[in-house]
Each structure stands twice: as C-alpha cells, then as structure tokens.
Amino acid sequence: MGLRLKFNLSILIAFLIGFGVAAVVLRGVFVDTARDQVLQNARIMMTAANAVRNYTADDLVPLLPMEHNGKFVAETIPAFAAQTNFKDVEASFPGYTYREPTLNPTNLTDRAQDWEADIIHNFINNSKQTELVLERQTAVGPTLNLARPIAVGDPTCLTCHSTAAVAPAVLTQTYGSANGFGWKLNDIIGAQVVSVPMAVPLAIARKTYLTFLVILVVVFSIICLILNLLLHYLVIAPVKRVTAMADAVSLGDETVAPYIKPGKDEISSLSVSFNRMRESLKHAMAMISDK
Fold first, then answer.
1. Which H or E run includes 163?
2. DSSP assignment, residue 156?
3. Is residue 210 in a domain?
4. Which of 8, 30, 47, 146 could form a disulfide with 205 if both were Cys (CB 3.0 to 4.6 A apart)?
5. Domain count, the chain
6. Degrees (nearest 5) of the Cα angle 264, 265, 271?
7. Low pLDDT (below 70) residues in the chain
8. How many Å from the N-terminal Cα to the C-terminal Cα in the chain?
9. 96 and 148: one domain?
C-alpha cells in the first residue's frame, strides 16, 4: 500500500466519522430551528388574537347593544370576534387556525373536539400550567399547536353563563338553554388553540440541511485535492527522486546525477544526507580502486 493511498484512506476515514457526527447533530439543529420559528409564529398569532379580544371587550362592547332585531349580537363576545377575524387568515393560509373550544359552549360550533378536550382537561388537571405545545398530524401535514387555558376570570361572564334562568332572554332564545351554563368563577372552561402547519418550514430546513451536507462534501473534496497535490510535490516526488538515485548507486552507477531538494524540511535534509553518503561512497570506492 503506497503512501498516497494510506494518506487518502486516513483522510477519508476521518472525514466519514466527522461527516456522520455532523449529519446527526445538524439534522437536529435544523429541525429544532424550524420548530422554534413555527412556535414563534404561533405566539404572534396568539398575541394578535388577544389583541382582538381586548379591543372587543374594552372598546366595542360598551358601544354595541346585546340585542338587535330580536337576536343576540355575537360581536359583543371577544371570543367570537377573535375567531371570526382569523377565518380570513385561514382562507389565505390553509392550516393556520385559531379556536377557542370549550367543554360546554353556548354556541355549539365552539364545542371542543376530542383532541381539544384532552388539552382542556390537561389544563384543568394542571392548574399551574399556562401553556401547552404539541404536534399533530393533520390533512395539511404535521401541525404545531399552541394552547393556553381560558378561565372565568371576570364575574360579569356569569351573567350569561351561571344559569339559564338569569341569562339574558335574547341569549337563550338564540342559542337555547341547554348549553353554556353552570360556569363558576376561576373555573377553566376552555382553551385558546393556535394551529400552525410545519410542512413548509420543515421542508426548508431539510433542503438547507442537505445543501449544507453537499457543501461539506465539496469542501472536503477541494481540501483533499489540495492535500494530494502538496503530498505529491512536497513528499512523494522528492522521495521518488531519492529512491531512484539510491537504486542507481546500489547498482554501481557512478554517473547518476546528484539530487538535493530545495528547502529546509525533512525531505530536504534526507536528500542532503543521502547525497553526502553518495559522495562518501564514491570516494571510498575510488580509494579502493587506487589500491
């Protein structure tokens, strides 16, 4: 096995080990980065939804009547305003949703689905938990869900949700008297749930990851080529010259041209030493011939 082959095998083994470690570590880094970006988008959506809720509760509710043409004005409910606002977002960006599901809603369209009910029960059983992040497989691919509990924190909420008997008549006429009642102050009755698709960010992360691996291979190839050129011109070629001179001298060829590699490295020192030995051997042979 030649020196060049040994050198290249050593470099290749070192690269493969480093490449394998980098591939495993970087894959996790890119996926985690994509997930963090999605989670940040979810938190922005949650903040926007709360802004709509606060604006509705603080500015619109005092101005809007609870009843209009014999029907309950749903726009006076912050949850309705926030969810209606995000329907336009979902229309433009499928999979991006904001819901406020509850276990016992007045409007049955807000009834929690099974997986949403699990989130609400989790908050009920862990009253100190203020946020939950989970991932689900949906029709649009993997989706990240950010959830926060909804508790009855304002006593005025009980005006409509304590019992059907004390609720505004227009409310029961619109939604009936079977649902949305029995709430108590500080009870967790639902959750804010933001859903953000992860397919696109993960695809971008995967593409970036593969591009990075290709760049690593290209950089390694360039470095390997440069090292091989240096190995050839600085080591292998001079050693071959010295070897050829040694072979010729060993066969008694006194006409072989001397070779001294320029420089001050080890190969240069070897060529100088061998050339000195050649001259010494030549003088010794000449002395023997004279005798």
1. none
2. G
3. no
4. 30
5. 2
6. 85
7. 1, 248-261, 263-265, 267, 270-271, 274, 278-279, 281-291
8. 45
9. yes
Domain, as residue range, for 273: 3-12+218-290
pLDDT one-digit tens code per residue, 103-136: 999 888 899 999 999 999 999 999 889 999 999 9
pLDDT of res. 113: 94
Assess whether 99 and 121 both reside in one domain. Answer: yes
Closest CA to 150 of 171, 132, 170, 172: 132
Residue 195: phi and psi, rounded to 5, are -120, 130
Are 200 and 150 members of one domain? yes
Of all helices (H) and strands (E), which one includes residue 85?
Answer: helix 78-92
Assign residue 3 a region (left: φ > 0; alpha: ψ between -120 and 50; beta: otherwise): alpha
pLDDT at residue 143, as a whole number:
95
Residue of 183, 173, 155 lying closest to 66 (CA atoms): 173
Closest CA to 151 of 125, 112, 123: 123
